[in-house]
Amino acid sequence: MSLLRFEDVSKSYGDEEVLHDVTFELDAGDVEVIVGPSGSGKSTLLRCVNRLTEIDGGAIYLDGADVHAMDENALRRRVGMVFQDFNLFAHRTARGNVTLGLTEVLGLSEREAAERADQYLQRVGVADQADSYPAELSGGQKQRVGIARALAMDPDLMLFDEPTSALDPELVGEVLGVMRDLADDGMTMLAVTHEMGFARSVASRLTFLENGRIVERGSPERLFEQPDHDRTREFLGELTDLHR
Amino acid sequence: MSVDETEPAAVGELPGRRRVAVLAVGVVFWAWLLARWASHNAVLDRLFNALGAPGLIRSEVPVRNREPWLSPEPFASAADGVASLGLPEVATGWLVWLLDIVAFAIESAPALAEGAYVTVYLTVASMLLGLAIAIPLSVARVYGGAVLSRLSLAYTELIRGTPLLAQLFLLYYGLPLAGAIDSVDLVGSGSIPGAAVFVAIVGFTINSSAYQSEYIRSALQSVDEDQLVAARSVGLSKWAGIRHVVLPQGLRYAIPGWTNEFVYLIKYSSLAAFITVLDLFGRADVIASDTFRTTEIYVIVAVFYLALVLTTALAMERVATAVSIPGVGQHDGDR
């Protein structure tokens, strides 16, 4: 059974339809990369998974269960999310950012939470910054703390919403490195990113989304080498040129 | 942080020598005030008696008969002396006035110290009780949905839109509140103040809760909303996210505005005198009608208020520094 399944999902803001009959599924361990022009509905698609946005039609299933029948907080503790602008808690240290969910949602004691936080900060390579506040961290360090915060909840699935778009170019590598390691460890990932190198080498599937519709979906090799649609070739070509 | 010489500086930002001078004046003022309270205060009286040091306190002496610790005589006779020199009025008038007012200040000081005690606890109690109300009010305003936020807005606008004096009169003369408080046996006996003080605290608490909630509301709104989204994305409920993410930051952002409100309330608390409370202003009023030296006593009492206000501003600067976090609030990038 698939870990995540979208069935004819649609979503509108007023008259504007941002997702239109989106259907796809992800198996455990899959790494799915979604690309598309701005306004194509990529972020909305991610936010529908953990119900930060509610869908208007269709259904989304996590491990066979309809997410709309689940308690939203219970759903969210199973789905980790990483944001473009990090969204770290500014008043808490790197460690404090990770422990909040552990103590308040999972009910760990402060000490257990701190130990677990330190493990995950170590894993993403920011153990030395555990006592630093977000304002004292570089963008790359912030994003790695953001990943540790989501990861420490031990989620079934990780969502990445343009995790490197707000970073200076020289800091992109460290974040992609962490994501690559995660994929190697078998984490199921759904990532919106325009890092085509990452997509080519790590993604098991690539989806091209435009105007709320899936234009084309397949292995990265096929979409890059011989896409069915000219629009896919054109868009991926532009992306690759941009990042050369 | 460098201070432009032309800018008015907060006490904490003054350069070394001036800062020491200001602090020294403050220390002398507060040492005197605290000692005065300790020697004439019924609450402290009991405390000292319990600690086995009776006789230190003379709380049975009526406030107006309490003796100043310094004698006003030297200043009064110096004033007379200067006046009798027969020099032109223009040359010595100011000196006579100054020596006179110092003598008068020394005479009035015991009563004003008693009043300052009432002003301080009236203000501190109302600020803290007001804060306890303002936090839920402002959270309701920002996150409460249509009904709660409108109720909160209505309360805030009603209180901020009507005169504080009218509110106090309504509470004291218009409602049976004072009578109800008075009917409690303990009120007005021994160390417990009379009903008017309680009514004043109720009035100031209500009034300041409305103003405080406005400061806190705008502070809450300046907390980056995406952080609440992030809290929700790890599974925190909306209220848990507000409590653990929004409030700790919002309350830090609110410190400058809150300090402002504190300073306002110290001064507005003088309205308590209009409902018979013998606070700092109330004492000054009594002295004014006893002596007819209105100008002098209001100048002196203004200095007392100024000292209380400066102390509060300085203390709140310390608080802001103590709780500051890099990247959060006014001390952004300070350390």
TrEMBL record, chain A:
PROSITE patterns cross-referenced by the UniProt entry: ABC_TRANSPORTER_1, ABC_TRANSPORTER_2
Example GO molecular function: ATP hydrolysis activity
GO cellular component: plasma membrane
Membrane topology classification: Peripheral membrane protein
Pfam families assigned: ABC_tran (PF00005)
Record keywords: Amino-acid transport, ATP-binding, Cell membrane, Membrane, Nucleotide-binding, Transport
Organism: Halapricum desulfuricans
Protein name: ABC-type polar amino acid transport system, ATPase component
Similarity annotation: Belongs to the ABC transporter superfamily.
InterPro entries reported in the protein's UniProt record: AAA+_ATPase, ABC_ATPase_HisP-typ, ABC_transporter-like_ATP-bd, ABC_transporter-like_CS, MetN_ABC_transporter-like, P-loop_NTPase
ABC transporter domain sequence ranges: 4-236
Compartment(s): Cell membrane
Keyword Glycosyltransferase: no
From TrEMBL, chain B:
An annotated Gene Ontology molecular function: transmembrane transporter activity
Keywords: Amino-acid transport, Cell membrane, Membrane, Transmembrane, Transmembrane helix, Transport
This protein's record includes keyword Transmembrane helix: yes
PANTHER family associated with the record: L-CYSTINE TRANSPORT SYSTEM PERMEASE PROTEIN TCYL, MEMBRANE COMPONENT OF AMINO ACID ABC TRANSPORTER
Name under which the protein is recorded: ABC-type amino acid transport system, permease component
Keyword GTP-binding: no
Entry's Gene Ontology BP terms: amino acid transport
Taxonomic lineage from the root: Archaea, Methanobacteriati, Methanobacteriota, Stenosarchaea group, Halobacteria
One Pfam family named in its UniProt record: BPD_transp_1
Transmembrane intervals: 20-38, 94-113, 119-143, 164-181, 187-207, 262-282, 297-316
A single cellular component GO annotation: ATP-binding cassette (ABC) transporter complex
Annotated localization: Cell membrane
Membrane disposition: Multi-pass membrane protein
Chief location: membrane
Family according to the record: Belongs to the binding-protein-dependent transport system permease family.
InterPro entries: AA_ABC_transptr_permease_3TM, ArtM/GltK/GlnP/TcyL/YhdX-like, MetI-like, MetI-like_sf
Domain ABC transmembrane type-1: residue ranges: 116-316
